[in-house]
Amino acid sequence: MTTDPIGIWVGAILTLLVFSYLLGDTPLFRLAQAIFVGVTIGYAATAAVYLVLLPMLFDQLLVNPVLIIPLILGLLLLTKLRASWPSVGNISIAFLFGVGGALALGGALGGTLLPQLAATIVPLDSLENIMLVLGTIGALLSFRFMRPQQPRVATRALELIGRGWGYVGRWFVLVAFGALFAGTAVSRVSILVNRVYFLLHDWIQVVR
Amino acid sequence: MRLIPTAIAIAVGLVTLLDYFYANPILDPIGDAFKQWTIILTAFALILGLINLLRVHFARIVRRHEASAGYSIVVVVTAMLVFLVGMWFMLPSAPMTWIFDNVYTPLQGAFFALVAFFLATAAYRALRARNFETLLMLFAALVVLLGQTPLLGVLADARDWVLNVPSAAGVRGILIGVALGTIATALRFLVGMDRPYSE
Lengths: 208, 199
Hints:
By secondary structure, chain A is mainly alpha-helical.
């Protein structure tokens, strides 16, 4: 929390500019939006330079000449600024997609899929565990939008079971959405309380 | 020209994937270097995006008849100002911390807080109990919300049950679906079936 009086005034005025949206899409709100976008651009660019480009690239270029490769790839990427230039920047994009795809695959497999499957393999000895397993499979089945071209009798029976299970699974998804909605609402209201407290306590000091 | 990016994406992707799953003295340094280069390239990509955003706003300023030209001036001036302060004083510095604490954080907090009002109106519209499914969602939201209030402590157990059983099953189903989708999409990149970088 800041104790600088100028900082408190700046923060309070900006907060009020944003809250002016409650009266409608006012010019004051759009001004706050513009300031926010500008500050974010400036800060992100500074962070990119000081947290990545300088320590990981330019400061080590003489020590590790191989880093000339990402430098060239980065400069090729910047050619994307001109639509008329040949698509040499695609090489850099391809590199990003290659590494990103591999890391996403490994992360999804080892970080999400296997742990979630392992957590779902539980003994079916209580109502909670049975609901957990049936609900998880049902929720997954509820996202199935394909239908066999020419269903045979056996596949049609499976299809009916899957559709029915998925229909019930949709209820679990909706309960999850409701819980997530409530969680989001609570976090946003907490932030609202924090902002109002800042205005009343730090700025006009009517709350001690 | 399409062949080279595709070959690079497949080769780099396979090496990174092998390095992810196997510890190998030859693959490890190559995989680490690829990851480091990706971070550097991401920074270049970020700068590319920011420059492009500024170009859009410059274009609006040049075409002065647009109603939003004034706001574009604010965007460009603020961005330049913060960037110049950052370049001059460096990032872990008192002026940049002041900007972060007194400009960025209040704005971000206020924008997030504003969502609370929209959530209230959205909740009124979406959660009106019209059918069984909406009722279910409304019930879950109410139990989780009221279960957090100290006045209704009896609902705390119900909230825990909702969060740990039906909600956990729903979220788990979604997460598994998302992971399967991610794996399928990544595999399509890695075998060259999808080539968004060649467009």
